[in-house]
Amino acid sequence: MSAATLITNVRQLPVLLRGEPQIISTWVRGRTGARMSLYVVVILIGAGAYGGAVGSWRAPEQALYTAIKFPLVILLTSLGNSLLNGMLAPLLGLNIGFRQCLLVIFMSFTIAAAILGSFSPLILYMVWNTPPAATATSADATGKMGPTLVGKDVVYPQALTDPGMFSIIYGGASGAMQSFFRRGMQQDQMLKIIAYVRTLDK
To answer: What stretches of 21-161 show up as alpha helix (H) in DSSP?
Structure first.
């Protein structure tokens, strides 16, 4: 794809975002190679920027993983939907080929990726002004954004006993508390956490 063709296709993005049906219908019937390349690039950049912004709240590594994973999920979803629609269209008596299904679905996800990418600066601003995940509980385990881990006013009463706290760490609990065993934490590490929390409760 030449530079002139790329510039021409980039200038067509506002038309796609406005959803002008007559022009878009001519694109669907015409050649698709250059436009498909542009749509893939927009999805990679837009969805990657949004995924990186959301993941940055957790950690830089999470931002990188999400920036890679989110665009790939969208691209794979687009391909899967295109295959499904391409197979169902003849069964439903519709004169729509796989190429047209692929182009139309990629157009829709390109619009979504462009919109999400435009929100990435806002997400980064929110992340910048949001306490990091590590500050959900204070250093003395009395709780900030998260619940307290010491004292008698705990959210989960079973956490008052060592076996109960172990079951929460191992298997998770309701809400956002997920199983740390499924995250790869070893049982001896869980026991060390319980022992440390008990030292804070004195």
So the answer is: 21-29, 33-55, 60-91, 98-128
Same-domain status, 160 and 118:
no
Residue 145: which CATH number?
1.10.760.10
Q: pLDDT tens for residues 38-62? A: 888 899 999 999 999 998 887 788 8
Q: Does 165 lie in the same domain as 98? A: no
> What is the spatial distance between Cα 164 and Cα 156, in angstroms, rounded to a whole number?
9
Q: What is the DSSP letter of 104?
A: H
Query: Tokens in use for 74?
Result: 């969208």
Distance in angstroms (rounded) separating the CA atoms of residues 171 and 148: 19
User: Which residue has tokens 């669907």?
Assistant: 28
Mean pLDDT of 12-18: 77
Residues 6+ apart with CB under 8 A from 100: 28, 29
pLDDT confidence of 138, banded at 50, 70, 90? Answer: low
Q: What backbone torsions phi and psi does residue 172 show, to the nearest 5 degrees?
A: 85, 180
Specify the amino acid at residue 72: L
Same domain, 70 and 112: yes
Residue 46: Cβ within 10 Å count:
25
Count, in order, helices (H) and strands (E) of the chain.
8, 0
